[in-house]
């Protein structure tokens, strides 16, 4: 993949822009692994294609700009995007804004699905809440990066009001392990999975394309104890990137209770 060197400088600029957009919204989406963990931007080692990563970042910037320009102080809304799926998190002062935000995001070019997790509140949380979310995110990232059988360079972590959202292209086993590990981090109230599930064979194929190996040849049984329950199952969606995978549909998350 010799083109990556030519991408380095422009991608770095894009990542910096993404960081600005994220900081202005007040939510905390990060990609696990390496220096690229500073923002929810493009990373070199990822199971998504380079083109899909660029598309996701473009969508993210457009949605965040729309949210900021339209709502200002009456809402703090952030978009995190993975494989065209937009996760909306944050706070709004009324239900109308929450509903409008999802409609706006759905109309952005190349958006496939919107998961609306905006919380309606009477008052926008102070900056101290954002700081705490940042701290939780950093701890979750550190935990996932040192957890066996977790593809730590392709999972996006977002924390809002101590609720951790995980996005990425993983096997069922990898997703279970990652969610269980995140649930054990101190300060986490709940973990919600928005993974796109792929087979172990497909994970190995994608990892070999990026020169990494994070998935064992045989997929183990789901963790089960201490990591399941309260799971809402959804339908499927076709990914427009490098591979077609099942995805969590709009408005559906898989919740992992904290033991």
UniProtKB/TrEMBL annotation:
Domain BON residue range list: 55-122, 132-199
Highest taxon in the source lineage: Bacteria
Region of interest called Disordered, as start-end residue ranges on this chain: 208-238
Bias (Gly residues) ranges: 221-233
Pfam family name, one: BON
Gene3D superfamilies: 3.30.1340.30
Annotated SMART domains: BON
Keyword set, alphabetical order: Signal
Protein name: BON domain-containing protein
């Amino acid at each position: 993949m010799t083109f990556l060197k030519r991408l380095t400088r422009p991608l770095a600029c894009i990542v910096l822009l993404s960081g600005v957009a994220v900081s202005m919204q007040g939510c905390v989406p990060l990609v696990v692994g390496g220096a690229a963990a500073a923002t929810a931007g493009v990373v070199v080692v990822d199971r998504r294609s380079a083109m899909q990563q660029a598309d996701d970042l473009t969508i993210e910037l457009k949605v965040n700009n729309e949210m900021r320009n339209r709502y200002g102080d009456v809402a703090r809304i952030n978009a995190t995007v993975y494989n065209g799926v937009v996760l909306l998190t944050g706070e709004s002062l009324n239900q109308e804004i929450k509903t409008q935000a999802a409609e706006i995001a759905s109309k952005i070019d190349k958006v496939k699905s919107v998961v609306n997790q905006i919380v309606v509140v009477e008052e926008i949380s102070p900056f101290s809440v954002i700081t705490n979310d940042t701290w939780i995110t950093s701890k979750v990232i550190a935990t996932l990066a040192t957890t066996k059988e977790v593809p730590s360079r392709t999972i996006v972590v977002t924390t809002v009001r101590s609720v951790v959202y995980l996005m990425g292209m993983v096997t069922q086993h990898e997703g279970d392990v990652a969610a269980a590990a995140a649930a054990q981090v101190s300060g986490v109230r709940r973990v919600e999975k928005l993974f796109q599930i792929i087979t172990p064979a497909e994970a190995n194929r994608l990892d070999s394309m990026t020169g990494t190996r994070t998935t064992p040849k045989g997929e183990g049984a789901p963790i089960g104890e201490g990591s399941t329950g309260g799971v809402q199952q959804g339908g499927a969606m076709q990914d427009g990137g490098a591979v077609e995978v099942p995805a969590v549909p709009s408005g559906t998350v898989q919740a992992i209770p904290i033991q």
